[in-house]
Every structure is written in C-alpha cells, then in structure tokens.
Write a structure and sequence with these properties.
By secondary structure, the chain is of the alpha/beta class. 45% of the residues lie in helices and 12% in strands. The chain contains 21 helices and twelve strands.
C-alpha cells in the first residue's frame, strides 16, 4: 500500500545548500517559495559539511533549516549528497584530499594516476566499487536519515535519498569520465570472470588475444561494441549494488521514511555515461523515482516512458524543471516551463522539482510560473490527467540500440504518432537487451546453445561427431594428407571443448 507521502501531489523547490545557506538568505527564500504555491522543499545535506572528522556528525544547521520549512507549512524531501572535498582543519592544515576517507577511494580519470579532479563546488566522487569508500557512504547515510526521521518524523520528512554527483543525482556523473580507479578495475575483472569461463572464451567474442581477464582494459565512453557493453553491464551492477545497500540502510535505520532516487535523462545520449538506461533495475528498491528533463525534451514522452517501465511497481515518479538561466540563454521561455510542469503532471507525475532558481530577482519575476502550475494541478480536486488506452499500440524500445546510437528520435516520432503528440498516454515497451545481453561464448551463451537443442538435434549432433571422429581415424590410418586437410574444418566445428582437450 502506498503511503500518504507517495500519493500526495508535490511542487518542490530545490535549495542546493552545498555550502550551508546563510540564514537570512535561507529564510527569505523559504518565505518566498511558500507564497508561490510550493508544497515542499527539497533540501540538500552535504556529507562533507556534516562529517568533517570521522564519526563526528553535525546536523544542527539542517535541523534549524528543516524546522523553519516545517513552520511555513511545507514538508521536506531530504537529499543526502555523498561527495567529499578538501577541508582546512582547525590548526590550518589540509588533508591530502579528505579527513574521512583516503584519496584512493575516489573515482579516477581515464589514464590518470590520481583521482578525478574536483568538480562543481570543489567536490570529488567516491568510487562506487570501493569497499571502504562505499562502507563510509552507507554508514553516514544511515546516521543522517535516522537522525532526521527521529527528530521530525514522516510528517515533515516526506522522502529521503542519496545522490552521488555534482548534479545531485543517483548515478554516475554524465559530464565526467567513467571511473577508472583500481577498485573499478578489480570489479571489471571480477565481472568478466563471472561471465566467462576463460579469457580465451572472452577473446572469441571480442576478436582479441588477451592472456588474462586482468589484461582486458576498461574502455572509454566511445566504445559501443562487445567490450563497451560488458563494461556497461559491470558499471550497472556496481551502481545497483550501492543503491540497494543504501536503500536497505535507510529501511533499517528509518523505516518510516520512503526511499527515493533521482536520475538524469534515462534515454538520451548522455545516459551511457550516467549508466541509467536500465533505470527500472536501479530503482528496484525505491519508492519515488524522479528524472531530470532538459527544457527542450518531450516531457509527455519522458513521463510515459517512466510510467510504462514502472507500471505495476507501486512507485511514485516525477520530473524536474531546470533553472531560470535557460530563459536568459534563450533555451526556453517561461511558458515552456509551465508547459513542462503541466505536461508532466498530466502524464501522471506526482512530484515536480524546481531547480536552479535560487537567485532572488528571477524567482520574483517568474514566480507566476510556479503559481500557475500549482493552481492548475495541485489545487484542483480532480486533476485532468491523461489516462491509459489499453487498446493502444505500443512503442518498442531497445536499450541496446539506445546504447549504440544514443538516438531516440525515431522512437519519439512513433510515440507522437500514436498519442496525438502526447495528448493521450503512450504505452512504451522497453526491451532490456543491454544489461541482460548475452554473448555466444560466455557461460550463459553456451548454456543457451545447449538448451535450444531439441532431442532430435542433439542426437543428430552426436551422430555427426561420431562420423567425423571415425573419418579422422580412418584418415590417420591410411595417411591421406589431402583428406586430412579436407576434414580439418569439420573437426574444428563439431568437436566439443572436452573432445579437443
């Protein structure tokens, strides 16, 4: 059964809060958004601010902020940002990178012998494959959600969730390189050894001659062949394992608070770096799933994509409206933002985030965007949402094709055709032929080849093997070299691995 937190419609204002917002600016901002139709504040809590000394937590500034938000009649979606940064200690010294975890626990750039350089806000991302780094992440996350659940309860904390990137999403950073740390290298080697019996089998699928699994390189983000798929599958499993651990930690430490995740786009060209094509699997243990649409995206398609994939899961889902600078740069208009908000709600989103609007002047000048969305959808007793047509044809989508091309335009064109440009719900049938891709010489691939043989095929194959062996023996007996050459290919094809050994 869904909780009240999951069924309530929300318009949430995002306060980034990476460096704790100065109190006067914070209260002025909260006062303003409370008058513009917002029901919720999505508040960020930065790990590097709350734990500067190992095991010592300072949640007091966030307690004060949350209490003020609650006093204005709004609830909170708590975002715990699990990034770290350099700290200056009280004696004026600096750590090598961080006071809580070692430099080696962070993600590394391609071909580099050091961690990925600090990104936005001077932060660096922990390797999701690092045992010690992720243990520190999970420990802190559990302590944070437990504290706020106990202090405020579900009446104030509507959802809580972890994020890993400077864009505050539960994924790899789409603007950065893959993680090439020693931890990810070990994870990739272990993954290959779980998929293939031997490196020789892997070489058959790759067309290479790597002597061991450890010799196989981690590819860059341009690789879309077999090696690229295998590395994507590894990264997907590493990311899922971390999200699942954090979900379990929250449900143990604060079972009264629903668990959420947020992804950037789950179908565009950058999703290969985000590793979010298989978002249904990644969000298996989440109660709320939010995606972040760029202003120019087809928001009806995005919401129907998410709704189709999550159908029957009981999850709540939503979308995010990007910042005011998009208007200044001519990317979109105020009316475009209204369209995104209303379209997302019409296509059954229950949560809408508004991010990057913290500057006073644009928020004041464009406040009507949010009051319009609020009045039309949040304040209606029976919102006019798009409903599903069970007789409607479906748009099939291949995740492998998205991975290979990064191009969703044909799929979206088909979607617009069957939905009258998004006026009706569009059922989208996603085939996960990417994270579940099986290659012929893998363990699973060999099993599939065995399983698909009918009894008659198996009997015929045994007869062929026997005839080939008999012929080879006869050839050897008579010393007919020409005949040996003629039979060489047949022997290679029909002898099993055991026979060859």
């Amino acid at each position: 059964m869904e909780s009240k937190a999951q069924t309530k419609r929300r318009l949430a204002f995002v306060i980034w809060n990476f460096e704790i917002t100065e109190w006067e600016a914070f209260t002025r901002l909260v006062d303003r958004v409370s008058r513009q139709g917002f029901t919720t504040v999505r508040l960020h809590l930065s790990w590097f601010n709350a734990e500067k000394i190992p095991g010592v937590y300072d949640f007091a500034p966030y307690d004060e902020q949350i209490a003020y938000i609650a006093g204005k009649g709004m609830d909170v979606i708590l975002t715990v940002d699990l990034q770290r940064k350099v700290h200056t200690l009280e004696d004026g010294t600096k750590t090598a990178l961080d006071a809580v975890i070692d430099t080696d626990e962070f993600q590394y750039a391609y071909g580099a012998d050091t961690h990925v350089p600090e990104t936005l806000y001077g932060t660096a991302m922990v390797s999701y494959a690092s045992p010690r780094g992720t243990e520190c992440m999970v420990r802190f996350y559990a302590a944070a959600v437990s504290h706020f659940a106990e202090r405020f309860g579900p009446g104030v904390i509507a959802f809580a969730y972890p994020t890993f990137t400077p864009y505050c999403e539960t994924e790899y950073w789409c603007a950065g390189a893959y993680d090439y740390s020693v931890h990810m290298k070990r994870a990739f080697c272990a993954y290959l050894s779980s998929v293939y019996e031997t490196a020789a089998d892997l070489n058959l699928d790759l067309g290479t001659d790597y002597p061991t699994f450890d010799a196989v390189p981690m590819p860059d983000d341009s690789e879309r062949g077999v090696l690229g798929v295998l590395f994507y599958q590894c990264r997907h499993r590493v990311l899922k394992a971390l999200i699942d651990r954090l979900s379990e930690a929250q449900k143990t430490a604060a079972p009264i608070i629903p668990f959420a995740v947020q992804f950037g786009c789950v179908w565009d060209g950058a999703s290969v770096r985000r590793c979010t094509y298989g978002f249904a699997d990644l969000s298996e243990k989440a109660d709320l799933v939010v995606v972040d649409d760029a202003p120019g995206f087809d928001h009806a398609f995005s919401m129907d994509y998410v709704a189709s994939v999550l159908d029957g899961s009981g999850k709540t889902f939503g979308n995010e409206i990007d910042g005011y600078y998009m208007i200044a740069d001519g990317v979109t208009t105020a009316e475009g933002y209204i369209e995104q908000g209303l379209t997302s709600y019409r296509h059954n989103a229950s949560v809408q985030y508004v991010a990057n609007w913290m500057v006073d002047e644009p928020l004041s000048n464009y406040g009507y965007i949010f009051s319009t969305i609020s009045q039309e959808y949040l304040e209606q007793q029976t919102p006019d949402t798009v409903t599903e047509n069970s007789d409607q044809e479906q748009v099939p989508i291949s995740l492998l094709k998205l991975f290979e091309t990064g191009d969703c335009r044909d799929y979206q064109e088909d979607y617009r055709h069957i939905t009258d440009d998004g006026e009706r719900f569009g059922r989208i049938a996603v085939c996960d032929d990417l994270t579940a891709k099986v290659y012929p010489n893998s363990i699973a691939g060999k099993d599939i080849k065995i399983e698909i043989l009918t009894p008659a095929d198996a009997e015929k194959q045994e007869e062929e093997k026997k005839s080939v062996k008999d012929a080879a023996m006869a050839v050897a007996a008579f010393g007919a070299a020409a005949a040996i050459l003629a039979l060489g290919v047949a022997v290679k094809v029909f002898f099993s691995d055991k026979d060859e050994k």
